[in-house]
């Protein structure tokens, strides 16, 4: 029973590799040194400013900043992972456009994917994710692996519903002899419509997101302004009661920001 459990854990958490052993697992993001430093500096600088304004202690601000700079690495990696997936989806849409053009010119499936590979290199460069995935697919073709199997593997690693849907429909069309050109064209149109809807929603919510960010900065600006004017309304000193009040205030700001981010984040 224990061995089965350990096996299940490895299947969930170990990175998935493509059938050629070269495909990336897109739900795991490994930051490079530059990205780690960027995340650390952003977390440290922001935390230091907030803690110093509230508690007037450089030592406490520095300690809190270092702690947050280390803890924020995970969340920054998740942000970069999501950004990579969104970029991959846009590249996948362009790949479908290239496939549609190749099929329209009379190419067979192998030739269409080969042409799409060349087109994606011209658009995105050799290091782009979609280029690497097409390279893996072409390697699979040369190794007598079915394209539908390679697409299913790509969809499994990307964890993107649009790619998974395309892989499933492509497999069915190959087995049942459907019109692959029409299927790819229809999939491209669906993805285009989805992306346009997401962009429209993003435009509608951009104002609210900006307001949320401004509201989070305003308390800090108010504190600086009131202290500059010598206002007696500010909570000064680091008595136990004052520290408790400041901690509660910071907790409320953090909770409001998290809640605001959830409200202004809509996935289609």
Automatic annotation (TrEMBL):
TM spans (from-to): 37-55, 61-81, 212-231, 243-260
Keywords on record: Kinase, Membrane, Transferase, Transmembrane, Transmembrane helix
Superkingdom: Bacteria
Keyword Membrane tagged: yes
One Gene Ontology term of the molecular function aspect: kinase activity
Signal peptide bounds: none
Protein name: Kinase
Source species of the chain: Eisenbergiella massiliensis
């Amino acid at each position: 029973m224990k061995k089965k459990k350990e096996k299940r854990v490895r299947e969930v958490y170990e990175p998935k590799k493509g059938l050629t052993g070269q495909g990336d697992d897109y739900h795991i993001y490994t930051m490079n040194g530059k990205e780690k430093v960027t995340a650390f500096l952003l977390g440290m600088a922001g935390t230091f400013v907030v803690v110093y304004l509230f508690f007037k202690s450089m030592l406490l601000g520095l300690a809190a900043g270092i702690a947050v700079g280390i803890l924020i690495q995970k969340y920054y990696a998740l942000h970069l992972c999501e950004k990579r997936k969104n970029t991959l989806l846009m590249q996948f849409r362009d790949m479908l456009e290239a496939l549609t053009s190749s099929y329209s010119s009379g190419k067979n499936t192998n030739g269409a994917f080969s042409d799409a590979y060349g087109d994606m290199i011209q658009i995105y460069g050799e290091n782009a994710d979609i280029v690497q995935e097409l390279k893996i697919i072409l390697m699979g073709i040369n190794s007598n692996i079915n394209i539908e199997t390679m697409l299913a593997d790509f969809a499994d690693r990307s964890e993107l519903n649009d790619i998974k849907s395309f892989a499933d429909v492509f497999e069915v069309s190959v087995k049942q002899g459907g019109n692959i050109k029409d299927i790819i064209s229809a999939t491209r149109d669906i993805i285009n419509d989805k992306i346009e809807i997401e962009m429209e929603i993003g435009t509608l919510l951009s104002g609210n997101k900006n307001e949320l960010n401004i509201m989070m900065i305003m308390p800090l600006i108010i504190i600086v302004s009131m202290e500059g004017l010598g206002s007696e309304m500010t909570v000064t000193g680091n008595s136990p009661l004052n520290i408790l009040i400041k901690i509660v205030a910071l907790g409320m700001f953090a909770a409001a920001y998290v809640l605001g981010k959830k409200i202004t984040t809509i996935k289609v």
